Amino acid sequence: MSEPLILGIETSCDETGVALVRGCELLGDSVASSVDQHVRFGGVVPEVASRAHLEAMTPTVRRALDDAGVKLSDVDAVAVTAGPGLAGALLVGVSAAKAYAMALGKPLYGVNHLVGHVAVDQLEHGPLPKPSIALLVSGGHTSLLLVNDLATDVVSLGDTVDDAAGEAYDKVARLLELPYPGGPPIDQAAQRGNPKTIRFPRGKWGDGTYDFSFSGLKTAVARHVEDSERRGDPLVVADIAAAFQESVVDVLTRKAVDACVEHGVSTLVISGGVAANSALRALAQQRCTEAGIELRVPRPRLCTDNGAMIAALGAEVVAAGLPPSALDLATDTSLPVESPLAV
Amino acid sequence: MLLLAFDTATPAVTAAIGETTPDGAFTLRAGASSVDARRHGELLTPTIQDLLTESGLVLGDLDHIAVGIGPGPYTGLRVGLATGHALADALGIPCHGVTTLDTLAFATKRTGPFLGLTDARRKEVFWARYDDHLTRVGEVRVDRPAEIDTEGLPLIGDGARMYAEALGVDGQGAEALEPLLPDAAAMAELALRRLHAGLPLPEPAPLYLRRPDAVEPGAPKKVRQWVK
Q1: Are B194 and B103 in contact (CB under 8 A)?
Q2: B131 within domain boundaries
Q3: B222–chain A nearest CA distance, Å
Q4: Structural domain contains residue B84
Q5: B-chain residue closest to A62, CA distance
Q6: B113: which of A64, A131, A161, B7 is 20 to 30 A away, CA to CA?
Q7: How far is A322 from B29, CA to CA, in rounded Å?
Q8: Side-chain half-sphere of A87: how many Cα atoms within 13 Å?
Q9: A307-342 pLDDT, tens digit each
Q10: Chain B nearest C-alpha distance from A93 (Å)
Q11: Is there a contact between B62 and B93 (Cβ–Cβ < 8 Å)?
């Protein structure tokens, strides 16, 4: 019982997540999602998400405590997502976290959502080797990171210059008349399709950077769909989905493995909502095995937004002896990934 | 009975600690307000800590929390509500709501009818009619100022100052429209008075009065509009 008990609170997008973590052990977590309320709009509506966070906040804290079998008074520190994320959504979690910390008389740590996605892997696979490379792929982010230390030293190697990978899935799903969010239905359709029938572009392929681009790919899919309709050709959704997906995962895994090789790093972590994608997991495993790299992918529940990732990073920050955030902590919608702890 | 009150539904962040004796006499233990429409989230908890220090109290001494439920611009409004819910949850004490316009009205001590108005942004105001400082008539509403029938009654609140011309009160000085923003000292007194009298207070749930702005998407935009 030497390690402190961390309460983690996450509200950066459409998931209200709360969890309790001690060291690398996840004791309990609870997530309330407003995704169903966003489906008809084809994307997250910030005001809808913020309203849902406020309603879900304290009940989710209670469920997480029950799940962990601990009392609020057992908590040693409160960690909360300070950014990046939606302004109004972040503010609900940060306000609640400040109140819990103040009422408990325990320190508050405003932490980085993106680094949390990497830290969460420790709850499944144990301490992360230093350094590691991390690929974060979600509806809002596509980042390649060199993680020397989760609490103190994270370097951004590259990012998407336009759409996030998950955003590309959502947009292509709409073109193919598949439901939102687009990741799971495209992944399913792709398993029945032949990726070799269409060749879609690989954005920023071989450009010597670790950046990504998916907006050209989305436009190429739109052109293909329109041209097929104009010619009266049948649309083979499975083949389009497979070819699109191959283009996405090809670039993601290639650049991630290249980064490991260039930096002499033997561990790759893939996290974020898109890490649940079967093609990404399969190709990443194949290429990591070929290159002698250990691949770590948390289970899908931990890949999507949750409180566990924030509590896990909070535990690292506390263990590193970093100073807590002040109660006037501000949210930062574009908190850089180089700042695991918000100041 | 000790009560912590705060409201973040207007550009003001206002907080106060009030106390009633067993016979119902009210004392303000501490109160503070600041006006910064963009920093509610940063200001509220430090303000509460300052009040505790000033009054020599700790959070564990509190018996009740009262939080402003608006209506008011949503992002700031939620700061107060999220704080109130979490504090009450952690302390194991009740959290009550107070309608922000009722706090404004209570502070006037007026004995005759008047309207209270606050800024709702988008060229609209949140408003309600009062028979006196304790008695609201009907629900709180959101409307364009020019659409409100003021019946020639006195107007109070920041909404009246912002839209003085449309409301036909532009000859009056700002003092005539006071208070412009809610003060938690009045709110604490109002809430404690009701609790002491055994009267209900609203649930601590936001009064949004509008649906979220969101439109369902149409068909995807064509990328080959130039192709016949």
Answers
A1: no
A2: yes
A3: 8
A4: yes
A5: B89
A6: B7
A7: 36
A8: 7
A9: 999 999 999 999 999 999 999 999 999 999 999 999
A10: 8
A11: yes
b/e code B66-105 from CB counts within 10 Å (16+ = b) = bbbbbbbbbbbbbbbbbbbbbbbbbbebebbbbbbbbbbb
Alpha-carbon span A329 to A4, nearest angstrom: 22
B226 touches chain A (CB under 8 A): no
Give all domains of chain A, ordered by start, each with its CATH number: 5-120+306-319 (3.30.420.40), 129-298 (3.30.420.40)
Q: Is residue A127 scored above 70 in pLDDT? A: yes
Domain CATH for B48: 3.30.420.40
Write the residue in B49, B79, B213 that is nearest to A102 by C-beta: B49
**pLDDT, position A5:** 98
- Which pLDDT value is given to residue B227? 39
pLDDT (tens digit, 9 = 90+) per residue, A258-316? 999 999 999 999 999 999 999 999 999 999 999 999 999 999 999 999 999 999 999 99
Contacts for A244 with CB less than 8 Å, ≥ 6 apart = A172, A186, A190, A200, A217, A221
Closest residue to A61, CB basis, from B41, B49, B89: B89
Distance in angstroms (rounded) separating the CA atoms of residues A16 and A92 = 10
* pLDDT of the residue at B170: 82
- Note whether residue B132 is domain-resident: yes
Q: Which residues are registered as beta bridge partners of A80?
A: A9, A110
d(CA A199, CA A247): 8
Q: Is the pLDDT of residue B77 over 70?
A: yes
Within a domain: residue B203? no
Owning domain of residue B24: 2-196
What integer is the mean pLDDT of A63-88?
98
pLDDT band per the 50, 70, 90 thresholds, residue A37:
very high
End-to-end CA distance of chain A: 29
pLDDT of residue B224: 63
Give, for B55, the enclosing helix (H) or strand (E): helix B40-55
d(CA A139, CA A168): 8
| Chain A residues within 8 A of B79 when measuring between CB atoms | 91, 95
Whether B31 has a pLDDT exceeding 50, the answer reads yes
pLDDT score recorded for residue B37: 87
Instruction: State the pTM of this model.
Output: 0.95
Look up the ipTM and state it: 0.95
